[in-house]
Amino acid sequence: MTGATADRTVFRTCPLCEATCGLQFDVRDETVKRIRGDRDDVFSKGFVCVKGSAMKQLHEDPDRLRKPLARRGTAPDGAPIFEEVEWDEAWQIVDEKLTAVRSAHGNESIGVYLGNPNVHLLGSGTHTRPFLHALGGAVRFTASTVDQMPRHVASGYLYGSGAAMPVPDVDRTKLLVLIGTNPFVSNGSICTAPGFPNRIKRVRERGGRVIVIDPAYTRTVKAADLHLRIRPGTDAVLLAAIVHHLIATDRVTVGLTGALVDGLDQLAEAVEPFSPEYAESITGIAAAQIMSLAEEIADAESAAVHGRIGTTTVEFGTLTSWLIDVIAIVTGNLDRPGGSMFPKAAIERVRPERQGREYRVGRWTSRVSGHPEVQGELPASDMPDEILEPGDGQLKAMFTVAGNPVLSCPDGERMDQALESLEAMISVDIYVNETTRHADVILPPVGALEKSHYDVAFYGLSVRNVANWSPPVFEAEGPGEDDILAKIALIALGMGPECDVEIAHGQVLSELLGAEVAAVGSVVKGRDVDELLAMVDGDAGCDRVLDVLLRTGPYGDGFGVDPDGLSLMKLKANPHGIDLGALMPRLPELLSSPNGRIDLFAGPFEEELERLGAVMTEQAADGRLRLIGRRHLRSNNSWMHNVEVLVKGKTRCTLQVNPDDASRLQLIDGTDAVVRSRVGEVIAPVEITDAMMTGVVSLPHGWGHDLPGVRLEIARKHSGVNSNVLTDPTAIDPLSGTSVLNAIAVEVAPA
Ligand SMILES: Nc1nc2c(c(=O)[nH]1)N[C@H]1C(S)=C(S)[C@@H](COP(=O)(O)OP(=O)(O)OC[C@H]3O[C@@H](n4cnc5c(=O)[nH]c(N)nc54)[C@H](O)[C@@H]3O)O[C@H]1N2
Ligand SMILES: Nc1nc2c(c(=O)[nH]1)N[C@H]1C(S)=C(S)[C@@H](COP(=O)(O)OP(=O)(O)OC[C@H]3O[C@@H](n4cnc5c(=O)[nH]c(N)nc54)[C@H](O)[C@@H]3O)O[C@H]1N2
Ligand code: SF4
Ligand SMILES: [Mo]
Known about the structure:
Blueprint: E1 8-13, E2 22-28, E3 31-37, H1 50-53, H2 55-60, E4 69-74, E5 80-84, H3 87-105, E6 110-114, H4 122-134, E7 139-142, H5 149-159, E8 167-168, E9 175-179, H6 183-186, H7 196-205, E10 209-213, H8 219-222, E11 226-228, H9 235-248, E12 261-262, H10 264-271, H11 276-283, H12 287-299, E13 303-307, H13 309-312, H14 317-330, E14 340-341, H15 383-388, E15 397-401, H16 405-408, H17 412-421, E16 424-428, E17 441-443, E18 453-454, E19 464-467, E20 469-470, H18 481-492, H19 501-518, H20 529-533, H21 541-551, H22 568-572, E21 578-582, E22 598-599, H23 605-620, E23 625-628, H24 644-647, E24 655-657, H25 659-665, E25 672-676, E26 681-688, E27 696-698, H26 713-717, E28 732-733, E29 738-739, E30 744-750
Parallel strand pairs: 6-7, 6-15, 9-10, 9-13, 10-11, 12-22, 15-16, 16-17, 23-27, 24-26
Antiparallel strand pairs: 1-2, 2-3, 4-5, 4-17, 8-14, 18-20, 19-21, 23-30, 24-27, 25-26, 25-30, 28-29
Bound molecules: ligand MGD (2 copies), iron/sulfur cluster and molybdenum atom (MO).
Molybdenum atom is lined by residues 116, 147.
């Protein structure tokens, strides 16, 4: 199906957000002529958003790095001076820096920050583990603790694994309740459903209802049956009151999963203080409305309650995520069609031997704040302290891989100072941005169109089971993430800057296959590693790992056991993807908790409910404005503002204020306001809109591109301000270490 004017057509999944849309690239004279939605994609069926179509501009962006940069000093205005170098020299710098820091301060002085695109990149998916392993005890931070970590922790305690996250069965549900998420703009999160807006419309077309709980009137609200405006940060109280009402009115129906659940008795007592009347006083939603919402969820033929950023980046994020699942459990909606279900990804590994382990956090703690480790990481908001505070274990070197913590993590100004103070910083990134400008060396992987793709993370969070591999659109003219991470690993293992990455790729494969042939329940248990190695397909290092994962996964060909099963070769033959069917019930098979059961109180949720009551009652007396965030369809966190089509038009980095608040504070539309929090202040133009709830103001994140040395010519012209100058690094959800990015107390005045 080559377009009439194209030399060739390539089908490739979009890697920019979680929706995994299939794109069709028409290429002529080795240039992308046209990008459109792939109508034959088994999952997205032609859906595409403006960002997907901008992949051409991203690819051609002159500011995107094609060669490594080495830092040669600092200009008088504070801007770094970079020089383009060949890869050989870049690897030499990595070796020298790493060796110097390690010999002076040891492995524990090295930190790693992994940003969001890592979960969208096949090479990171397959090679991050060996990279971290080779760095030895490197301290790990990721964007998860400014995002979804509460969801992992709630799942860890409930199901035994942080990876077992139920998703709303959007395509079959009769009642969709969306809390703190705006899929008309974000295209969905922890719920991979390309064309999410259409899927929401279809809920209503088949006679179902859609309810949105959000302080703001959003594009998703516009398409819903009911909008409940909630005071930011109070969702846990609303959800606890729903459980309270279900219990008080005898509406608990646990359904089939009930037999697997412990702790139901304890639940009644734990939510006892959260009456609908109390919840009204905290959330601003009328008690009668809360009761009717609870009854509607209980009575619906099926109901799926789904929470995202507005429910996780708050002080009670883990409790909120837990309560969402508790509601699914007590209304019989967990693990049933139309409710909240567990996907079965093609590369998933569920092993009987894993069952029976207690979920644990806090196996170590951060040096300065004492925060517990969660899922092997420390809170991203601890980075500045860990770098700046002297003492044993102080971080002296950082690797950043596809991350921009200066704009995305709390107290951006201190983060910025901290990174500049390091003895060594190595960044794997495609731009010189607010973060990477501090690096000694920037290692740029090839662009998205020059590498293959498979959504290792998102097919595990998907409303249908799907597998789709994409070839690169253009031949690579440099290394991908797999090569870069492998090379750093080899250098860290002492192999020197001239080592051959193929050694690392080979090692990764042998280890993976070695583990497979030894694993109880593996389809290749007992087979010979060398025999399997000879059968592995794929050009890139990451493709070969993927082939092994696919073939030993739940739908795999088992290296010849099931000739119809999945393999990389089979995916190559199906460029529009393979639909593996609707989600199926997976309990109890999926549970890896002790006894293979769901203990509602395996985590400290009783204590957390007590703390919730105390904190909420106290906060209700605080009359300050609450700051929340927002996204825009043409944005992607901090890094897509350098594409003209995505930033042109009205200024987007505005402080949205409700008309009542604006007149009380004497703010005038279009003029500047100063926003102050405990840690910082910014000046932003006011946008008066009744989309915002009274008492709430909103500022998007990811802006503030005017720092010295940032090489983003277009973004700089639309710089905006960094909203994370206002976020407080000490404010976290204590169970997950996740930053409080919503419901921040602020003062606003005319500038
Ligand atoms: N106040 C506030 N703060 C927030 C949020 C919020 O809602 N409010 N949201 C949070 C969330 S959900 C997230 S996920 C984080 C994101 O936080 P980060 O991951 O730290 O930030 P991003 O803006 O996603 O930065 C992505 C980086 O990857 C680089 N990059 C892009 N493509 C590639 C590639 O192919 N390879 C490599 N190696 N690099 C690439 C970009 O140049 C950029 O430097 O921000 C969080 N911060
Ligand atoms: N266009 C675009 N798409 C994206 C991204 C992007 O930057 N731009 N980022 C991607 C990433 S990394 C992620 S994690 C996802 C996030 O996906 P979503 O969670 O859907 O993202 P948001 O649009 O930030 O929606 C959060 C909503 O929560 C509301 N909210 C804020 N505070 C509260 C609260 O206390 N309670 C309640 N109930 N609601 C609250 C906000 O008003 C907002 O409407 O989006 C992804 N997709
Ligand atoms: S919705 Fe997401 S995956 Fe689909 S085209 Fe847009 S950015 Fe790409
Ligand atoms: Mo995110």
